[in-house]
Design brief:
Aminopeptidase; Elongation Factor Tu (Ef-tu), domain 3; 2 domains; nine-stranded mixed β-sheet; six-stranded antiparallel β-sheet; 10 helices
């Protein structure tokens, strides 16, 4: 398995919330032989690296969401352009003039562009664009043309068009959807690494659906698995180009980011301490952050059942939720390695201690 090829395929895949099928099909190629695979009706993909689980051992969920921020066609105008709604959080300025891919009623990819009024017709050229002032244009000349010849219709999904870039010299990669296709790659790589290990915990890897619209897949996942602990991967916003240096907590090439707090979750302090101790003992660089905005699947998972101690391992990504993001391979590799080392260090007593049962 060549890691860079897997990341490229996953990042370029078409997969807005609710339409993660293409991502799941690519992921299946990288699941180790002999693993048990289940897909549910909401498009969560469950991976057990070993076909049989030991009922006497605690279970650890390793999660990453397979969806990406996207768009959905709302209506087709008489002139053939289309209004849209956003699937997930976008900044309007990042969408203007971007290329998009739409999956039409025949399942074919149609290319378009997000259009707005040219400056020649704008009353106020300096005014910030709003979503309602933009449309998607595929080149149709009228509504009938868009429907009959381009296969357009309301409710069709769309994603930005972005080609994967790999700067081998500097070990930097770029594409859309690093939130959270880097995490998906980590989950798949971990499942391969641990398949032949004799761990003291059961592990279930999951590529969960619809995180960007409210962590919907993760809510189903915890009802199915009922894990004792959870590790969530996330493509997390790097702040090293948008924050003062002394306040930056998520920098490229400084290791994965473990967050203590965001508006959706106060990270379980005992599990966090365990993870940070593992990182220190294994010489794995790790950053720590307290976030005032954003949330992850951890917000849904940690409140399930009687409470599931959860940590989030974030791959730092610059310009997240945009058509073009930047990440460092070494951060990806260290985040993946950290999760493997945590799984190797866990056992029944440690899990019970973290859960407060010892």
């Amino acid at each position: 398995m060549k890691t860079i090829d897997m990341i490229k395929e996953l990042a370029e895949a078409f997969g807005p919330p609710g339409f993660e099928g293409d991502v799941i099909e690519i992921a299946r190629k990288y699941i180790p032989a002999g693993a048990r695979i289940v897909q549910d009706s909401i498009k969560n993909l469950y991976i057990c690296p070993k076909n049989e689980q030991n009922p006497d051992l605690p279970t650890v969920l390793v999660d990453a969401h397979s969806d990406e921020v996207g768009l959905m066609i709302q209506a087709i105008r008489d002139n053939g352009t289309m209004t849209f709604v956003t699937l997930g959080m976008w900044v309007p300025a990042t969408l203007a003039a971007q290329k998009v891919r739409i999956k039409n009623i025949h399942g074919e990819i149609v290319h378009g562009v997000i259009a707005s009024k040219p400056p020649h017709f704008a009353a106020n050229q300096d005014a910030a664009l709003k979503f309602e002032e933009m449309v998607i244009d595929v080149g149709a000349t009228c509504k009938q043309d868009a429907i009959e010849n381009f296969g357009m219709a309301p409710a069709l999904p769309a994603v930005p068009f972005s080609s994967f870039k790999h700067d081998e010299k500097n070990a930097v990669i770029g594409c859309k959807a690093f939130d959270c296709r880097l995490g998906c790659a980590s989950v798949l790589q971990i499942m391969n690494k641990i398949q032949d290990m004799d761990l003291n915990v059961n592990v279930v890897g999951v590529l969960s659906a619809q995180e960007e619209v409210g962590m919907r897949g993760a809510k189903v996942v915890t009802n199915v698995i009922k894990p004792d602990l959870a590790i969530c991967f996330e493509g997390t916003p790097a702040d090293d180009t948008v924050t003062k240096p002394d306040l930056s907590q998520t920098m490229l090439k400084k290791g994965p980011m473990l967050r203590h707090y965001d508006p959706g979750m106060i990270t379980h302090p005992d599990f966090m301490r365990f993870a940070l101790d593992v990182a220190a003992k294994r010489g794995i660089p790790a950053q720590q952050a307290v976030r005032s905005g954003g949330y992850t699947n951890g917000a849904a998972i940690h409140l399930s059942h009687l409470g599931i101690p959860t940590i989030v391992i974030g791959h730092p990504v610059r310009y997240i939720h945009s058509p073009n993001s930047i990440a460092a391979l070494e951060d990806y590799e260290n985040g993946t390695k950290l999760a493997v080392e945590i799984l190797k260090a866990l056992n029944k007593d440690e899990v019970m201690k973290i859960r407060g049962a010892l």
